[in-house]
Amino acid sequence: MKTLLLFLLFCRASSAVKHTLKFVLTGSSGVSAFPDFLAVIEVNENQVAYCDADTFGPKHEWGKNVVENDPEQVQWYRNECYEDKPYFLKEMLSSLKQRFNQSEGVHILQLMSGCELDDTTGQVSGFLQYGYDGEDFIVLDLNTLTWIAPTPKAVITKQRWDTERGRTKYNVRFFTQMCPQWLKRLLHYGEKTLLRTDPPSVSLLQKTPSSAVSCHATGFYPDRALMLWSKDGEEIHEGVEHGEILPNHDGTFQMSVDLNVSSAEDWRRYHCVFQFDGAEDRIITELDEAVIRTNRGESSV
């Protein structure tokens, strides 16, 4: 039977060059055992703080440094959590229910906003959008300073909000100037967690001589990564099945991508590629005739 050789051609991995600060706020009605208002703050998809009507606080120890050393940022969060956004989402939710004649039932209004920073180019972008009952409702175009209504239900809201130029300009300024500055500070305070990068251990596995070859990566962090199979240097899709990114017990992640390959082919033309999102470096694993790991962790030569 054909056997495999695991060969790391390029094993240095670097962290993603793009970072995000995201605010996810949820207002609800008719949902039992769930707060009417809930907010989550995420950096690079990691939850770093949360709040509801009664609770506010960081999720990690390093968050205490933000509370102690960045009172302006923390005060803004408190105002958003306890004063501004709970009232705003409640009023908007009530207005939408009246507009759509929804006196009963479960209804969810969600606001997602934030900014993205490319720490290589310095390019900054912001985003601000609303969803209602699981569908996109309205989005702010930060370039034209107008609102986009992806559904006819939001046209009335768009027409009214387009006239509120002062609030729109404030949003643009906040999400393209203040937000990136706060993001940089959070990355500084939480560097050991937020900028941590652990490269994976990559293995090639095969259950039987006729089954698919699985390229399995484990122990990597963060979870923003991709894997693919290539043939002669070009990505292939036929005969390839991608698995989900799954968590490990130690906080790292694992994932697999399977390849169905004919035993008559030259397997050395195929490579499994692992890459962190936004990184240039890759881990490339080559198929060859030498070693294969079975699903029992054994090898045959």
Automatic annotation (TrEMBL):
Signal peptide: 1-16
One protein family per Pfam: C1-set
UniProt KW keywords: Glycoprotein, Signal
PROSITE patterns per UniProt: IG_LIKE (PS50835)
Gene3D superfamilies linked: Immunoglobulins (2.60.40.10), MHC class I-like antigen recognition-like (3.30.500.10)
Residues annotated as transmembrane: none
Keyword Transport applies: no
GO cellular component annotations of the record: external side of plasma membrane; extracellular space
Gene Ontology process terms (BP): immune response
Database matches in InterPro entries: Ig-like_dom, Ig-like_dom_sf, Ig-like_fold, Ig_C1-set, MHC_class-I_related, MHC_I-like_Ag-recog, MHC_I-like_Ag-recog_sf, MHC_I/II-like_Ag-recog
Ranges for domain Ig-like: 200-285
Family: Belongs to the MHC class I family.
PANTHER family: MHC CLASS I ANTIGEN TRANSCRIPT VARIANT 1-RELATED, MHC CLASS I-RELATED
UniProt protein name: Major histocompatibility complex class I-related gene protein-like
